[in-house]
Amino acid sequence: MEDRLKITILGSGTSTGVPQIGCECEVCHSSDPRDKRLRQSALVEWQGERILIDCGPDFRQQILNTGDAHLDALLLTHIHYDHIGGLEELRGFSNFPIYARRDVIAALHQRLSYCFAEHPYPGVPHYDLIEINDHDAFDCAGIRIEPIPVLHYKLPILGFKIGGLAYITDCKTIAQQQIEQLRGIPVLVLNALRFEEHISHISLSQALEIIEQIKPGRAVLIHMSHGIGLHAETAKLLPPGVELAYDGLTIIVPSPPL
């Protein structure tokens, strides 16, 4: 049994993935496997428990790539399709626990109404939807999780703090209170969409500014588009302790969950 907290980046890409369909840029035509980015998702493991963070449209491929389809629970950051589009693939699990904000749960009832019908069609997935809020820590598969409320443009969404790990995706704005909550954390996983500014995602320079405030032991950038440039070239521009994620990257976290 693994006795160390670890996170595996199952997908490091934004909503379009990389390569982006129809794009002729050098990143989308790169032969470097680190430039092939499935939609954002991650797997957290601790003492035999396996928690999925987000379940996008590439989930089937991602979980099969791990060689082990066992999962204990799912944390949802928000309702956008690139983070929930693979939920149908959980049909093999019985009453699978999904932790999410109230607004996300309400949206799931609308988008997947056939799963919550009084007499559901045989074979549809069965979920156990568990409401969480912005400020109260909760137990998931025996692991203590602390929510990190951030804004995705005007949409309130959640990141998660698990022991010495902070995982934040699709953030545009993070309040000073959350900066203080995370200051000095051993591992920070944070979105950085591209070089240019974006209305609902932080850019590379903005991510580096947040990292400078938090001062984590290690910072790993995720949710990247082809606008982040070639992995090999952009990696050279990053300060010490900051790196670009890639699909399949596994990170050992020094501090375990409480």
Describe the fold and architecture.
The model has no long low-confidence stretch (mean pLDDT 96). The chain has 258 residues and is α/β, with parallel strands linked by helices. It has helices at residues 59-66, 81-84, 102-111, 176-182, 204-214, 231-234, and strands spanning 6-11, 41-46, 49-53, 73-75, 96-100, 127-131, 138-140, 143-152, 155-162, 165-168, 187-191, 218-222, 242-244, 250-252. It is built from six helices and 14 strands. Helix 2 (81-84) links the parallel strand 4 and strand 5. A seven-stranded mixed beta sheet has the order 6-5-4-3-2-1-14.
List the helices and strands and how they pair.
Elements: E1 6-11, E2 41-46, E3 49-53, H1 59-66, E4 73-75, H2 81-84, E5 96-100, H3 102-111, E6 127-131, E7 138-140, E8 143-152, E9 155-162, E10 165-168, H4 176-182, E11 187-191, H5 204-214, E12 218-222, H6 231-234, E13 242-244, E14 250-252
Parallel strand pairs: 3-4, 4-5, 5-6, 10-11, 11-12, 12-13
Antiparallel strand pairs: 1-2, 1-14, 2-3, 7-8, 8-9, 9-10
